[in-house]
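ARCHIVE CARD
Drawer: 12
Card no.: 0347
Subject: one protein chain, sequence and derived structure
Cross-reference: see card 0346
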Amino acid sequence: MGDESFALIEKKITDLVQVVTALKKEKETLAAELSRKDGEVKDLTRKLADLSRERVDVKDRVDKILSRLDTIEL
């Protein structure tokens, strides 16, 4: 009975070590993915800011053109 109990404990410890190893690997994978996603978010945020500035610039140019058209008498 003592050998069986020891074998059972040994198997449970081995299984536990495998689970911990798998979880560590998954954690590393998720951390790498999170880092990539953070980079993507920063890039998209920068692109959004660029597009917003471009939109304002285009709106200003259109407004200037329209105001010049308003000054023309038909």
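Annotation on reverse: The chain has a mean pLDDT of 95. The CA atoms of residues 39 and 69 lie 45 Å apart.
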